[in-house]
């Protein structure tokens, strides 16, 4: 096995994955037809092309319109875990969904959450990939709507719903405005994270000070993205010192921004931040969890042992109990030992082949 295959086959967690962003083009076209939603194109190769971040967010909202029945929701979460398990040996995911996208089309919280749970349970049985859910606030709709959404999830508790997130365009909903929604969630025992400082928004739109607000005002114990904090070394130092994990995503909605993203992830790594490699919206960005690890491990020039540490660090950043983390770490280590052994023997073999070819 070569190093790229090893990175791809490492056991992994993904803690930053939006369910509405996981539909393969074929599934999206299917659901759009079934539910009478028109899409900009029916060409599978063109359906996920975006002018910019805002064009991408519009598409997400349109995708959400295509997911209507409980069975549709179940199909989406089932396929998300099935595909990620096959593409990159995903073992565990904490996945976002936006109830507010669906409220707008008359769908109640129970339909979506129970549909997603049904799909997760089926994927867990068939593929052994475990899933949990994080309802996410659409910050563009403002603080009052966020409070209503959080009330809904508190009134309809589910074991698989373990936290609260927040996404969409940061300048349209700054973190501090959502203090009440987050306070309610924390009081109900939910863990908290938020999208912040994403590098496809400017420093004025998504400034480093927002990271401090997410930690101090919202009580986040994890951050999604965080790249723009690099503009303020004091904020980087604060995150490094408290060890808060950042879920960084190797791919983004516009290909011309990839170089910037990879440089930012490298600088965050060099700055000593605790990183978890994730996918965000994999088919929409033309990637998967295996490719995400290959990209980041190669960019950071990681050795096989360092890549294994990266995969294990992901477990520490999950919201599992300490017992569950211990069990998962044991299983990951056993799998990694087997992979390491296969890598050693065949990479020596391929080195020999290269030498004999030369
Ligand atoms: N929703 C889905 N992906 C997102 C992202 N990367 N940023 C903000 N909102 C999102
Ligand atoms: Zn995201």
Structural commentary:
This protein is α/β, with parallel strands linked by helices and 358 residues long. The protein has a single domain, classed as TIM Barrel (Alpha-Beta Barrel). Helices cover 52% and strands 13% of the residues. It contains 14 helices and nine strands. The protein has helices spanning 3-9, 25-35, 53-65, 70-88, 99-103, 109-127, 143-155, 179-187, 209-216, 233-242, 258-270, 289-299, 304-316, 322-357; strands spanning 12-18, 90-97, 130-138, 163-167, 191-192, 195-196, 223-225, 245-249, 274-278. The strands form two sheets. The chain has a five-stranded parallel β-sheet with strand order 1-2-3-4-5. α7 links the parallel β3 and β4. The protein is globular, with a radius of gyration of 20 Å. Mean pLDDT is 95; it is low at 348-358. Residues 18, 21, 60, 167-168, 195, 198, 280-281 line the site of adenine (ADE). Residues 16, 18, 167, 195, 224, 280 line the site of zinc ion.
